[in-house]
UniProtKB/TrEMBL annotation:
Keywords (A to Z) from UniProt: DNA-binding, Repressor
Pfam families in UniProt: TetR_N (PF00440)
Position of the signal peptide: none
Domain HTH tetR-type: 8-68
DNA-binding region boundaries: 31-50
Taxonomic source organism: Gracilibacillus kekensis
GO molecular function, one term: DNA binding
Protein name (record): Transcriptional regulator, TetR family
Organism lineage: Bacteria, Bacillati, Bacillota, Bacilli, Bacillales
Alphabetical list of SUPFAM superfamilies matching this protein: Homeodomain-like, Tetracyclin repressor-like, C-terminal domain
Amino acid sequence: MLKEERKKELKNQIFLKSIELFKEYGYENVTVEKIASSCGIAKGTFFNYFPKKEHVLLYLGNSQDDLLQDIAQKYQHLKIKQQLLNIFKELISVYLNNSDLFKLTISETIRSAFKNESTNINIFEETLTDLIENAKKNNTINTHFASGTISSVLVGIYFNTLVNWSVNNEKNESIITIFEKQFEVVWEGIE
């Protein structure tokens, strides 16, 4: 047990130091050697925890899986529409304080999804599918659309909102407001 805890602590230390270096020097200017040296570990040790530098950013996305479960649990007493909206709003809020890190994470998550290296999006969709399926069983939502299709569309507008906001974040409208508008359009078609 202690060994596993130490491994987890070291992985988190590598992650936090990497993020610190990315912020200070820019993602492209930070090498695995620089990360390892800053952590006081060998380059090979870095690769024991992260197969590539890009996986440090994916780790941030992976850590969101646990957050997603916690958020879903927190709002389980609400009607499905409000439950889903609150889940998305909390996930979006995680990125609001650091738009540069956000842009890197989103671009790497999307790139890895196309390479089939990441299951984050699949886990996200599966979690939402389960929530929607439960709402159907409890008759709190009445729709003829498949739960998986609904969750896929909702995840799609989530990422669309994040990507558009990261590219055009000089707009006066908040990212949550943008998402809520798109969510409402889609939800109207679901119910």
